[in-house]
Amino acid sequence: MGVITKKIKGTEDVLPKQSYRWQFVENIMREEARNFGFREMRTPVFEHTELFQRGVGDTTDVVQKEMYTFDTKGGESVTLRPEGTAGAARAVLEHALINDGLPIKAYYFTSCYRYEKPQAGRLREFHQFGIEEYGTSSPAADAEVIALANSIFKRLQIKDLHLEINSIGCPECRAKYNEAIREYFGKRVEELCGNCKSRLEKNPMRLIDCKVPSCAEIAKDAPSILDYLCEECENHFEQVKKYLEIAGIEYQVNPTIVRGLDYYTKTVFEFVSDAIGSQGTVCGGGRYDGLIEQLGGQHLPSLGYAMGIERLLMVMENQGIEIPAEEPCALYIAGLGEAAQAKAFELVNSVRSSGLAAETDVVGRGLRPQMKYADKIGARFSMVIGDNELEQNSAEVKNMTTGEKTPLPLDDSFADKFAAVQLAEKFGKTE
């Protein structure tokens, strides 16, 4: 098999027999987002590279190592989106969505691209459900977006997820914390990994989140950001906790959560599962009150999160959560001969027009292979049309489970009469 018939490393195919699982999860996410007042947004798969450099942060691993960046034929540098927030913020600015009233509440389903080492729960092309809320600094909004994530997890019946929250403060109190971090890690600079040595000056708070074991060990005794919060940030964090308690949402304060992107301020949070190993974060987000300003707009406090769909499906599978299978084909009609096949095609289309799934042969099979196919696709009912049925203008529809047969006319009333048979079978026959 040649290389062109193999998927690229770090990508996955979602096959027809698997896609219903994605659709089930996505439909619940859509329903819950609408319940909370969010509407769908769709943005391009690539943006100007500078958008991510300014929005995500040019000292982050994402920008420095992981982005898929290339020059167009027109000489522009563009990048496949590594995350969804920067593009959403750009759209808010470009289309002046502030004029539609505040807060701006949007959700999206998006594919993202990062050149990372592929492993369980981490791909180079991955998919996210994201929430964006612009134009509110209220701690109630922080609790609202967390409550939306929590409601999705409840609907999906996911167990053993715990919410971890932190505050990383505003630029003012974070500046004091960064000095404390530089002083603490500066004493052991020779023990730090190469990335952390460069972060020490450019982005010291990221040292708290380093996954290299030696750096993580040093970070255990590092100063806590919570000891450096200004009065406003401390009050905001206390109010977020109060609103979470009002919503009945349990949480743990984890001072080591800093998130990996530079735009975060104040509240940051993660929903973490122990069911999928080291890549246990299935949802992460927080506030990014300065992001719109970083992109050239006026101050517009903002917040949101992203939920990894692949990771969520992994958690559900590991916990044995059953996703309802798609409704099977309601009716398969086999036609024997050209005239019968034409009639089968006509009837199948009338059944589809009535809102039911129906199929007939489009391959040129004989009767036996057709019936095998009907069984393979799980058709609830089948029907065979030949010369006799055409002559009598009637054929029997067969319940594939019970073997019970019901005669139906092959005329304009067929779809309605078949629907009645199907309903009787589904809900029980009435007198």
Number of domain modules: 2
Largest sheet: 8 strands, mixed
Distance between the termini: 60 Å
Strand element count:
16
Summarize the structure.
By secondary structure, the protein is α+β, with helices and mostly antiparallel strands.
Describe the structure.
With 431 residues, the protein is an alpha+beta fold. It has 2 domains: 3-170 and 230-318, Bira Bifunctional Protein, Domain 2 (BirA Bifunctional Protein, domain 2, 2-Layer Sandwich); 331-422, Rossmann fold (3-Layer(aba) Sandwich). The protein is 39% helix and 20% strand. It has helices at 19-35, 49-57, 61-66, 85-94, 139-155, 171-186, 194-202, 213-219, 231-246, 291-294, 309-318, 338-353, 367-376, 387-392, 414-427, and strands at 39-40, 46-48, 69-71, 77-80, 104-113, 125-134, 161-167, 252-253, 265-273, 281-287, 302-308, 331-335, 358-360, 381-385, 394-399, 405-409. The protein has an 8-stranded mixed beta sheet, sandwiched between helices. A 5-stranded mixed beta sheet has the order 13-12-14-15-16, with helices on both faces. A 3-stranded antiparallel beta sheet has the order 2-4-3. The model has no long low-confidence stretch (mean pLDDT 93).
